[in-house]
Amino acid sequence: MKFTDHVYEKYKTDWRQNHQHPFIIEMGQGTLGVEKFRFYMVQDYLYLIDYAKLFALGAVKAQDLKTMGKFAALLDATMNEEMALHRKYAEQFGISETELEQAEPSPITLAYTHYMLHAAQNGPLSHLVAALLPCMWSYWDIGKELNLIPGAADHELYGEWIRMYSSEEFGALARWCMELMDELAEGVSEQEWARLEDIFLNTTRFEYMFWDMAYHQSMWPSNN
Ligand SMILES: Cc1ncc(CN)c(N)n1
């Protein structure tokens, strides 16, 4: 069985929890509080800076030029397309680029990005891809699901987010990541397969915690 089919079946409950988080439900209904979305955008911008570094590490760890080129393209797409969406939203909220970059990361943002970079730096390419997979796949899955809600993709604030993550371009990147994961997991030992599952489950759970952090605008206890 392919790794992606296996983890989808086994961790369906954790996976679906992300789709059912109030942040996602309310974004689809267009009722999400603007301050929650604003908080998310700032934290996600900080997240994306480290996420882009993950792609740079992917290029370093790639075993062939095709994979290396793909990671370089993903790095470019993150910095110039995905982060551009955030910069646009920030402008709407009156936040400058400098303010965005200098914002304080929340404990969850720090924990999530540090976990991903740790897995990427200390293991083979398969560990990096396992850490990355839920980020790409789950956003695409959520984007597609929200896009099915009549009118959601036309919402004046959340529509652009939904259109971007449900797009064919984003889907192609997510599919590439899934295929690469399946290739890298093929034929690995039982112990290594379990390690990959572990990393996949951890970042799937971090995805949930990120939505929850944004919904409750959680910072360090002393800041709240
Ligand atoms: C937390 C998070 N996870 C995933 C993505 C999709 N690249 C994102 N923008 N932010």
CATH topology descriptor? Heme Oxygenase, Chain A
**From the 3D coordinates, which CATH architecture would you assign?**
Up-down Bundle
Mean pLDDT: 96
Shape: globular
The low-pLDDT segments are: none
Order of helices and strands: HHHHHHHHHHH
Instruction: Give the names of the bound compounds.
Output: 5-(aminomethyl)-2-methylpyrimidin-4-amine
CATH C-level class = Mainly Alpha
**Beta strand count:** 0
Give the number of helices: 11
How would you describe this protein?
The protein is mainly α and 224 residues long. It has a single domain (3-217), classed as Up-down Bundle (Heme Oxygenase, Chain A). Helix content is 79%, strand content 0%. The chain has helices spanning 3-10, 12-19, 22-29, 34-61, 65-92, 97-101, 107-122, 125-147, 159-165, 168-185, 190-216. The longest helix has 28 residues, at 34-61. Residues 44, 47-48, 82, 135, 139, 207, 210 line the site of 5-(aminomethyl)-2-methylpyrimidin-4-amine (NSP).
Task: Write a concise keyword list for the protein shown above.
224 residues; Heme Oxygenase, Chain A; 11 helices; 79% helix; Thiaminase-2/PQQC; hydrolase; EC 3.5.99.2
Q: Care to give the gist of this entry?
A:
This protein has 224 residues and is mostly helical. The chain has helices at residues 3-10, 12-19, 22-29, 34-61, 65-92, 97-101, 107-122, 125-147, 159-165, 168-185, 190-216.
